[in-house]
Amino acid sequence: MNSNARTNIDIKICGLKTREAVQRAIDLGASHIGFIFFEKSPRNIEPADAAELAELARGRAKIVAVTVNADNDELDEIVALLRPDILQLHGGESAERVLTIKAVYGLPVMKAFSVREAADLEKIDAYVGIADRFLFDAKPPVGSDLPGGNGVSFDWTLMHALDGNVDYMLSGGLNKDNVGEAIAVTRAPGIDISSGVESAPGVKDIGRMEEFFAAVRRATDPAVAAGSRM
Ligand SMILES: O=C(O)c1ccccc1NCC(=O)[C@H](O)[C@H](O)COP(=O)(O)O
């Protein structure tokens, strides 16, 4: 068995900026790779640079463009250069704006929501049937400039209230030590990580990526958990 084969859960590695990190994420079995287009982020990347990196992944993992309340000009440039498979909208985009973006670009949209309490999950109601997938992240800590990539988690048991038909990725503060519990508690169909596989803000760490994928495999593949060599 290829120990780096895809897991039965989607894994998105977000905020990639180097060839080495993209290549390793793909080899480890990432289903999605994310590029951040947000100037204040330490993971911010120019669309042309992301486009070059994306060619290492095209056809092997879904290429995700992460934007925050981007206007049409910004989206035009990102879509033209990167040719993403998915647009992740990580700001306060309305359901109407999501509809417009889908119509203009003809791409699936993953709409991010920040979660702290049960009522936060109800905010997706207006987007069900419009967004193709959701991403549930933690609320940013007070004072943070970033709507995502803050390395903080939320109460995963809140996900028990979610309609089982809603497709989503679980995000926020995941790392090798807590991802097994996060999957066990939520049964999330996908997980997303950024700072938990970094050695410093914006700097992906290959060793941490390897440890993270190994932890996901232990949590999702009974044979790996049992130490099988098959
Ligand atoms: O990661 C960023 O810097 C970022 C900036 C602006 C908007 C979104 C951003 N990240 C989006 C993601 O999908 C992250 O992977 C997600 O927030 C989880 O981050 P982390 O808690 O560090 O694993």
From TrEMBL:
Residue stretches spanning the membrane: none
Reactions mediated catalytically: N-(5-phospho-beta-D-ribosyl)anthranilate = 1-(2-carboxyphenylamino)-1-deoxy-D-ribulose 5-phosphate
Enzyme Commission number(s): 5.3.1.24
InterPro entries: Aldolase_TIM, PRAI_dom, RibuloseP-bd_barrel, TrpF_fam
Enzymatic class: isomerase
A UniProt-annotated Pfam family: PRAI
Keyword entries, A-Z: Amino-acid biosynthesis, Aromatic amino acid biosynthesis, Isomerase, Tryptophan biosynthesis
All residue ranges annotated as the N-(5'phosphoribosyl) anthranilate isomerase (PRAI) domain in the record: 11-214
Electron transport listed as a keyword: no
Pathway annotation: Amino-acid biosynthesis; L-tryptophan biosynthesis; L-tryptophan from chorismate: step 3/5
GO molecular function: phosphoribosylanthranilate isomerase activity
Domain of life assignment: Bacteria
NCBIfam families: PRK01222.1-1 (NF002295)
Family as reported in the entry's similarity comment: Belongs to the TrpF family.
Full protein name: N-(5'-phosphoribosyl)anthranilate isomerase
Species assigned in the record: Mycoplana ramosa
